[in-house]
Amino acid sequence: MRGRITAYLRFQLADFLLMRAALPATLVVFLAYMTLASAPANVDWSARSGGARMLTQLFQAVAGAFIVLGSFLGVARLVTDDRSNGYFRFLFSKPVSVVRFYAQQWVLHGVGLVAIAGLLGLWLEARTAAIPVGAAMTMMALTWILVGGVGFALSAATNYDALLLVIAYVASSVLQGIKGAPDSLMAPWLREVTKLTLPVHKLDYIRAQLYTGGDLPWPATLHVVAYGMTGFAAAIVLLRRTSLAR
Question: Cα–Cα distance between 180 and 172 in angstroms, integer?
Answer without folding.
Answer: 12
